[in-house]
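Throughout our pipeline, every protein is held as a single compact record rather than as scattered files. Nothing more is needed to write down the fold, since each code stands for a local backbone conformation. The record that follows is passed on verbatim for readers who wish to inspect the format.
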Amino acid sequence: MFFFLFSSFCALSQQLINKTLRIDGTTREYLVYLPSNFDSSESIPVLFCFHGGDMYAESMMRFTADFRQLADANQFIAVYPQGLVTNSKGGSSTTWNYEGPYDNGTDEIGFAEAMIDDLVADHSADSDRIYACGFSQGGNLMWDYASLLGNRFAAIASVAASMWEWTYEDFSPTSRTGILTIHGTNDSYNPYNGNQYSISMNQLNEYWVSINGSQSSPSTNQFSRNVTRYLWAEAEGCHTVEHYRVQEGFHDWPSFSEQVIWDFVSQYNIDGLIGCGDPVELIINAYDSSSKELTVTIKNLRPGTFELRKSTGGPFEPLRPGLDIDRNVVFPLTIKNVNDEALLLQVWEKL
């Protein structure tokens, strides 16, 4: 038993790589987790996860935001960058630098671009599907990246971190990027309603809705008992803004964050929502007349809920029993009890 457990640990640990880069004469470090069954001949997405202030990359991975199981299941590379140790508030701590009035000269923009280039060169990462998320100070950094590196990051997610006032006032993003925020209403470090240093979450969402050209009014739903989800859906610009409001939530990383973040960012490539703007394509893969089973594939679905409707020459009517379809459905999809061997099919949006 001891030998089995030891062997399993070694197999897992071989997927975690400590890497370094030299940026302006400074050595920068980051952890790279390659998913199980990683194949360097395949180009897969990357998700960066930036730790909070006075935290470390490894503890972020192991104890706060562990994306490794999701990386294994969905085949993406998880990367945990390490902030530099700097002197602040009378002591030393790890932190991230932000461009603005308190800029300490550390080039976090160059660090991000160098990591992306390294991952593409060394691990064949998909340069069109590079994502980033961060917590607390690492989340504040996301607004520098969204504003200045929207041409490199397809989507970003920020947890417990609003945008600094100077980022809001001084930067003019030239590229759209998918935006997700998760924030507690009782956050004392980054107050939900803002303070002298950071803007409110309402102002932040409105700002990125304008940048992304998203729909001006959000749809809302109760994600869980104390969490409300807001979605400003895509318009012609093919970019959304999504926000999770944690009622009475504090300055922490909610347990649902990893799944929600991956579900959000994975919809994107560098051009926006994958398939957005392309016509919905319905493909009939097969029909088995003996079992009455129809197999179909649907491509380029937008966010929302859809249904299949059929016609044998007259008006289109929903299949019976009804079948709800969204972007989470795995295709090809087999539908049972389809009795008509000759029929027309269409995809209809459910309102």
